[in-house]
Amino acid sequence: MIDRPWYKHYPPGVEKEVSIPTASLSSLLKKAFKERPTNTAVIDGPVRWSYQKLYEKVLSFSHSLSVKGFKPGDRALIKLFNSKEYIVAYFAVIRLGGTVVQANPLYTSEELRELINDSKASWAISHAEHADKIQRADRRNRLGVVLVSAAQSSGDTESFEAMIKNGNPALAPEHDINPYENVAVLQYTGGTTGKSKGVMLTHQNIFSNVYQNYHFTVKDISEEGEKLLGVSPFYHVYGMSAVMLLAVFRGSTIICISRFDPKKFLEIIRKERPTLFSGVPTVYGALLKQPEATEETMKSLKLCMAGSAPLPLEVIRAFEEKTGAVILEGYGLSETSPTTHRNPAQGVRKAGSIGIPVPNTDCKIVDQFTGEKEMPVGEVGELVIKGPQVMKGYWQREEDTKRTLVDGWLYTGDLARMDQDGYFYIVGRKKELIIASGYNVYPREIENVLYEHPSIQEAAVYGIPDEYRGETVQAAVVLKDQGFIDKEELRMWLKERLAVYKVPTKIDILPSLPKTSVGKILKRTLQNQAKENQLLK
To answer: Which domains does the chain have, with CATH numbers?
Structure first.
């Protein structure tokens, strides 16, 4: 094994390579049921289910699905918020040898149609209130539709609750799968820079990542009485793997939060006393605004983890100072199930860094233009990754797969650097690199400086075509409550902290920034708006 500088920073007892068992995802729930049947598996509002009850619900739903014609290899679109129904539907589809097609519950009919057509899904499981959207998206009426909270089965749709009630757990089939080959999940990329692609994640890809996260982050935390707060959406790979599946793997409790509301979130923390929490950046930013988010309120949390999108350094510092909680930053992609890096819970934690690679994961920084030369310590290049959590490929996109997976290495498209200790720092996306007057400008460096300004709540930096410079730097910011900024004074403030070519030539003050459902800022939208404004001048 090649020696890597980050190995010396692994927490005590964590090996560089762990022996990852071969397992299907359905085996995780079966194991939890056998070993901890009376443990609380799910808290969803006033409803509490033990692992025995959850397993029985999954068996009943599996039986009804199979009776309705569900076959191994079928793809089922699940369009549900975090809920007990999502968990049942997910494990039932997996048990029957099907593939879960993850869908954002907020998708429009047009977005759903693209997803259905690309994935060739034959089933849809959704809320009854979204029935019209599915009907408009499914123009060919080829989907078997199951609706949660439907009054009753009617026409071409089935009631989720009726299927559970009428299913026979003793007759639930279980398909024999190959964990290394069978695709458990089609996880569509966020599409922040272009058309979404379906990431094929096998059972073994996802289970490997659950196992890696367990060993690196929570192995030494007692499993008895652990409660994971499920605010990260399960339809996103991060919430699915780092919250739902990690909890099931440990026989812990999942607290479902369907939609994030800061005040209700804090009420749940006070009532349920969760011990582990994984959140996206927008959640941490929103909690900072709440006077009730105090150290006393948050004292039950042993660890807070951040993922899905970069968390600004100033937000980390402010949140930890206010609440006393510790945030472990990490990094991952849909293509890696998702986690590849994490700051260790024990040992050196470097704020602003994505941490070090988790066990069984190798990575390096390569020349961003050729992808071949490995860059020296401290220099910026493209981050490439190898490990058991790396996807099988993109669904029906062979050329995209060949460009992204090269000799077992996943080319992430993210620009990063590694320090002498083996800690990694993301500086931006290759596609976001701004070349202004021949200089390389990394947006995240400027954004981190903007977040230091006391009046700025959020910031985004991007490049705009410029006849003279090639590209020019532009920024959009959101102010804190009752904040005020004079734009020219802000530019002078930035000039004291940045080289002149990095200072945005224009700064827009907006009420909010466009984002994906997991908090990633849609810079493409901001760029398009800026280009349109240029044309109108």
So the answer is: 433-536 (3.30.300.30)
